[in-house]
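Deliverable D2.4 — example input (structure tokens):
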């Protein structure tokens, strides 16, 4: 995907916010812990970096569930296979 630097920054900020929301809401992380984890999961990648933005191929919900419940979380916790309406609403707002 080709995007402007502003578009990349906006996408990065949105995914960080969603990831932190999930960790706080479903993982009992403090807001500060969740934000720190989000920065680690979604680091800034400079323009021209190989595979820049590849993390965006799956939504923040999926990455957060992997962090909280591990591989195949959707089998062990089918209720978590997809995000709830609250998550979707927040994603639309961002």
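Example output (designed residues):
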């Amino acid at each position: 995907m080709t995007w402007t630097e502003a578009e990349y920054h906006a996408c990065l900020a949105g995914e960080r916010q969603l990831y932190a929301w999930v960790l706080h809401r479903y993982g009992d992380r403090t807001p500060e812990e969740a934000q720190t984890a989000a920065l680690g999961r979604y680091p800034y990648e400079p323009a021209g970096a190989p595979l820049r933005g590849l993390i965006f191929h799956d939504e923040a919900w999926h990455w957060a569930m992997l962090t909280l419940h591990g591989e195949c979380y959707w089998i062990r916790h089918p209720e978590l296979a997809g995000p709830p309406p609250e998550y979707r609403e927040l994603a639309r707002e961002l």
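The chain is about 60% helix and 0% strand.
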